[in-house]
Structure formats: C-alpha cells, structure tokens
Amino acid sequence: MTNASLPTTINAAEAAHFGSLAAEWWDPKGSSAMLHKLNPVRLSFIRTAIDAHFGGDSKARHPLAGKTALDVGCGAGLLCEPLARLGGAVTGVDAAPENIEAAKAHAALSGLAIDYRAGEIAAQGLGKFDVVTCMEVIEHVMDPGAFVVELFRHLKPDGLLLLSTPNRTAASRIFLVEAAERLSQVPRGTHDWDKFLTPEEATVLLEDSALEVVDMKGIAFSPMSGLHLSSNMALNYILSARLRR
C-alpha cells in the first residue's frame, strides 16, 4: 500500500489543538487536569478487562508481561506509562508530534522504554498487538469507521481492544462541553458534541469490523464519589471488545 492510499483519520485542526497543550499534559493541575482524574477510573476497568480476557491473577503486578500493547492517540503517555508498568511492551501513536516529544521526555525521566510514534497509525508499519487501547480519541478523528478498521487491523486474533469516549446526550452537552469548558476543566474547543458516539453507534462500528463488545460501563460523576465506573453511561463510557467468535 502506497502512502497516497493509506487510510487518513487524523483531523489536522484537532491534532494542532492537542499539540498546543503538550507542555502541560503531565501537570495534574494544568489543562489536562480532567484526564489525570479520569485515568485511574479507566485503569481500573482496563486492569479488570485484561485479567478477565487473558485469565490472569488479579493480584499479579505485571499482568501484561510477555504481551504487547498499542495505545492509539496516546497524547503525552498518560496511559502508556501505566501499561508499561503492568509489564507490557508498549507502543504509543499520536497525531501531534509535540505530544510525542513530551511523551518521550517523560518516559525517559520515568525510566520506561516505550516506543512512541507520531502520525497516522496506518503509516507506522506496526504489526498486531495483544492489547489495543484508544481513550477519548474516536470522537476527534475524521472517519470513525475507518479508524475502527485500523484498530481492528492492529489487534491479534486473540487480542483485547479497550475504548472509551463521551456519549452524545443532553447531559454530556451540558456537563462535558458547556460547563467543563466554561469552568476551565478542559481547554476551550476540546469537544465537538456532534462528533460524540452513542454506545449503540460505537457497537455498530465495532461489529462492522468483526469485533464484539464484551463489557461496557459508564464513567459517571457524583460529588461524593467523584469520577467512577457506573451503569450510568450518560456522560462517558468505556468498553472492552474482542474479535467476534
């Protein structure tokens, strides 16, 4: 396949927006503060899904030992680094070169060997992985269907896909877009509500690529519990999927 015929999923404007935030990505009080709060919740779901899928010990420190993991839309490495600490051989791909430079610098400080790449995932010449993750990315790409095909193409036959994204509901418009941006919880222009996918729409895209959803949970917020996994998917949801059997 020539470069001219490679699938194009990157939205240049979105890549530039997130690239401009690269310097603050690892600051828990900076422009990515919400991601720092969201990351432990996502990791809880991811760890449970990994143990269930691969039949691992929930108490093991390195459940990804001997396995490969690909994080698509990795930003500056907020998820790549925990995956590496779980024992995985991790590759991170992001549309913004600025994010990749920030990711490389932080991984070096952390003493972690992570293979970071900038650009279209289809152009990286990567193989297939045991685990493919994609957190809060699909709502930012040009063609969600083509993007899911690329996720599928990089997943081993017995691999595990993990994906999270905001839901397109009245609640998410109010709290994730209007309120969050006005209160500076996320940078202005981060979200386009019209590009959010409902769980039903995401499921159809996965099924079109011969994937089946194994588990799906909402990521909700309450004053008492903060962000937490929930049956309420009105704001955000995270899912695990595998090749259809």
Q: Please identify the structural class as seen in this structure.
A: alpha/beta
Number of domains: 1
Q: Which strand-content bin applies to the residues?
A: 15-25%
- Architecture (CATH level 2) name: 3-Layer(aba) Sandwich
- The CATH topology label is Rossmann fold
**CATH superfamily annotation:** Vaccinia Virus protein VP39
Silhouette: globular
Order of helices and strands: HHEHEHEEHEHHEEE
Largest sheet descriptor: 8 strands, mixed
Gap between N and C termini, in Å? Answer: 29 Å
**Looking across the biggest beta sheet, what order are the strands in?**
3-2-1-4-5-8-6-7
Determine and state the CATH class: Alpha Beta
Helix segment count? 7
On the 0-100 scale, what is the average pLDDT?
A: 89
Fraction in helix: 25-40%
Ranges where pLDDT stays below 50 over 5 or more residues in a row are: none
Please give the number of β-strands. 8
Rg over C-alpha atoms, rounded to the nearest angstrom: 17 Å
